[in-house]
């Protein structure tokens, strides 16, 4: 009890702090410019955002997470934040295969199953046929991830606790998956989190449901710190009023991914021959994956450029496929970044709009003291021609998914605000 109330007080303090420190650094530079009055619709005037503290890192953990209170009385579960999928699910006491949490930390359904005839159930079965033999059947789901992991379960509906930036708390009932059969495969070990928070724009996502209930505007954003941690928000309060690069989402994407393009690849500000890339923003992926051609171009340019440096390939570091060692072990990215040039994606239909990747956005420093390339060959792992911008390249940017105007925006910033306390 005392722990819980302390937690709530602490969170509230964090939010107030966030509001003050967050709005200032970013609007500051706009002070001398003519203000671009934000057009507000009537709903927006009293709209508010919900903010969550993010934990985790690209290396060694490989994921960023938030903790959410679910149920009443509320219980805390940690979720991998995933802008590459819609459905949110939590490990389920059903009983469970493939659960990694102890039984007392699993979610227990309590006669709160979503029925098969509900619209929401249809929303998670867009491509596959829905198997409802009777309308009152439970609503089964299965999600498969690009890394071959999967979760199978049933949809339930329960209260989630949302705290607005203005301090108000609401506990709407939201549908999510209770996952009783998880599989993990490939090189990745079983995730340590209780579940996945799907930030996608499909109708079953938390955001779409909160928006449909009129609780939040249809925006989600994240700021993942290079130092680890950061913050996540639903709603539009924390969107900087200037400096954001906005690119329209591609409508073609069948799965309604957050994707933009076409883009060409730049190395050290100069064109490479690689163009027409479609980029999917996916916070559920630790690293960035490019198709073979683009990947090879990155490897060639970086390798070629390193010839004038005292860096050698470190073939004995198993952390990632390509690593380099210095004359002595590297301690952090700041030891490394002077050796490497920036990469960038330049959007062919939006002149002068770039997604810049400084060395920190494509390298890690491993526990062996080497610098490794955090861009991987997606074609080789079965992603075919998809290009996935993962956590490593989303760091130290506020990234905003605007589902009202269907565009994605970003601005470089320091994502450490919430950790100051
Ligand atoms: C905070 O924002 C929410 C969402 O817009 C609103 O419903 C609530 O009344 C606000 N609370 C206060 C104290 O202003």
Automatic annotation (TrEMBL):
Q: Which residues form the signal peptide?
A: 1-29
Task: Read off the CDD domains from this record.
Answer: nucellin_like (cd05475)
**Superkingdom of source:** Eukaryota
Transmembrane annotation, as ranges = none
**What PROSITE patterns does the database record attribute to this sequence?**
PEPTIDASE_A1 (PS51767)
Keyword terms of this UniProt record: Signal
Q: Report domain Peptidase A1 positions.
A: 64-411
InterPro entries linked to this entry: Aspartic_peptidase_A1, Nucellin, PEPTIDASE_A1, Peptidase_aspartic_dom_sf, TAXi_C, TAXi_N
| Similarity remark | Belongs to the peptidase A1 family.
Stated name of the protein: Peptidase A1 domain-containing protein
Q: Which organism is it from?
A: Stylosanthes scabra
């Amino acid at each position: 009890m005392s722990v819980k109330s302390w937690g709530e007080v602490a969170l509230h303090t964090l939010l107030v702090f966030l509001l003050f420190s967050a709005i200032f650094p970013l609007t500051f530079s706009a002070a001398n410019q003519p203000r671009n009055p934000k057009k507000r619709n009537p709903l927006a005037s009293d709209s508010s955002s919900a903010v969550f503290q993010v934990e985790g890192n690209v290396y060694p953990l490989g994921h960023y997470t938030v903790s959410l209170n679910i149920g009443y009385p509320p219980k805390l579960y940690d979720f991998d934040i995933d802008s590459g999928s819609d459905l949110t699910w939590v490990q389920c006491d059903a009983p469970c295969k493939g659960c990694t949490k102890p039984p007392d930390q699993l979610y227990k359904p309590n006669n709160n199953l979503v029925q098969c005839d509900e619209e929401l159930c249809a929303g998670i079965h867009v491509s596959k046929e829905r198997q409802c033999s009777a309308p009152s059947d439970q609503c089964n789901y299965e999600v498969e991830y690009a890394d071959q992991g999967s979760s199978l379960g049933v949809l339930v509906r329960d209260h989630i606790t949302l705290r607005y930036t203005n301090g108000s708390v609401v506990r709407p009932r939201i549908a999510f998956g209770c996952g009783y059969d998880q599989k993990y495969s490939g090189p990745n070990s079983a995730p340590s989190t209780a579940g996945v928070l799907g930030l996608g724009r499909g109708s079953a996502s938390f955001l779409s449901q909160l928006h449909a209930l009129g609780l939040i505007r249809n925006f989600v954003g994240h700021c993942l710190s290079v130092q680890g941690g950061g913050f996540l928000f639903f709603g539009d309060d924390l969107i900087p009023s200037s400096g954001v690069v906005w690119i329209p989402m591609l409508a073609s994407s069948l799965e309604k991914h957050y994707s933009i393009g076409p883009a060409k690849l730049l190395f050290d500000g100069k064109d490479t021959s690689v163009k027409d890339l479609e980029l999917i923003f996916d916070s559920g992926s630790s690293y960035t994956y490019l198709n073979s051609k683009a990947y090879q171009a990155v490897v060639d340019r970086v390798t070629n450029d390193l010839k004038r440096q005292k860096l050698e390939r470190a073939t004995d570091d198993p952390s990632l496929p390509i690593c380099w060692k210095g004359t002595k072990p590297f301690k952090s990215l700041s030891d490394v970044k002077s050796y490497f040039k920036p990469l960038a994606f330049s959007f062919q239909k939006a002149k002068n709009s770039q997604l810049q990747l400084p060395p920190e956005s494509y390298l890690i420093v491993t526990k062996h003291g080497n610098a490794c390339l955090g861009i991987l060959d997606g074609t080789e792992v079965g992603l075919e021609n998809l290009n996935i911008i993962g956590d490593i390249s989303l760091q130290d940017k506020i990234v905003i998914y605007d589902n009202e105007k269907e565009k994605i925006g970003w601005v470089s910033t320091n994502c450490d605000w919430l950790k100051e306390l």
